[in-house]
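A.,

Following up on our hallway conversation. Structure tokens first:
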């Protein structure tokens, strides 16, 4: 009878084996960003029509940012944050093209245009989080400007002219620190999250946490990557009407796909 009672007693719960794919964050070498650019250029050369088509939105963003700097400079930081926010999502078609080429598949321009549709929920949630950050970034930049120039809406002076004035070095430092903090956060959340959602159809929270993990384990390399992005974008906008972004934008989009593939390994 004792044996029967023991057999009928509740057994400890044993969770089922998870079927979710395991991921591993790779420790990247310092040469990795240059390798991503090389691979990105190969993708651009392989799909020039698709790549240059997606270059047009990047060019348009540069024109809008230039107009903001000229007519409403107090909103410059918010405009920059909006561009950083939109960039990865505009590049989804480029990620799709790079993914297809990586798998040996034929290019599909129409498919790249709708690559986001099956991931709308996750993309929408991530957009929401980054949009809140963009709005906070814009508000913080206005507050910093108002604190240093004693005005609530500092529309009566040129922010860029003030930044170049040696007497305003405290304002420049504060503005750069606030902007840099928000830029680092947006970059950390999005550096691999959007390509990961496209590739694995993960939820936005998992993708964002993975992106932060990649940034934490490869901080130096990804800061170099961010610096290269800033350098290439800066050089491209020096050309007449920032037309260089029609090439640099797609190049960075393709390269960002390879940054994700090199940073996150699926087991």
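Then the amino acids I'd put at each of the 267 positions:
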């Amino acid at each position: 009878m004792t044996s029967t009672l023991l057999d009928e007693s509740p057994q400890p719960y044993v969770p089922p084996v998870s079927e979710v794919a395991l991921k591993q964050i790779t420790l990247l070498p310092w040469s990795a960003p240059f390798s991503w650019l090389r691979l990105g250029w190969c993708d651009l050369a392989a799909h020039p029509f698709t790549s240059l088509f997606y270059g047009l939105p990047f060019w348009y963003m540069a024109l809008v940012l230039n107009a903001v700097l000229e007519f409403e400079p107090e909103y410059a930081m918010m405009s920059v944050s909006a561009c950083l926010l939109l960039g990865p999502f505009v590049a989804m078609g480029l990620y799709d093209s790079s993914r297809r080429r990586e798998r040996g598949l034929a290019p599909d321009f129409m498919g790249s245009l709708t690559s986001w549709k099956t991931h709308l929920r996750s993309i929408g949630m991530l957009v929401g989080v980054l949009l809140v950050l963009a709005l906070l970034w814009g508000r913080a930049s206005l507050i910093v400007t108002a604190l240093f120039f004693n005005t609530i809406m500092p529309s009566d002076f040129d922010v860029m002219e003030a930044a170049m004035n040696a007497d305003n070095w405290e304002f420049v430092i504060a503005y750069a620190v606030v902007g840099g903090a928000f830029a680092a956060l947006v970059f950390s959340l999005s550096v691999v999250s959007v390509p990961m959602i496209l590739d694995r159809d993960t939820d936005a929270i998992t993708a964002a946490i993975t992106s932060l993990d990649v940034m934490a384990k490869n901080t130096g390399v990804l800061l170099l990557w961010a610096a290269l992005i800033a350098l290439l974008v800066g050089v491209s906008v020096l050309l007449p009407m920032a037309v260089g972004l029609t090439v640099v934008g797609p190049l960075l989009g393709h390269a960002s796909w390879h940054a994700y593939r090199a940073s996150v390994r699926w087991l």
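The two ends are 48 Å apart (CA to CA). Curious whether your intuition agrees with the design.

B.
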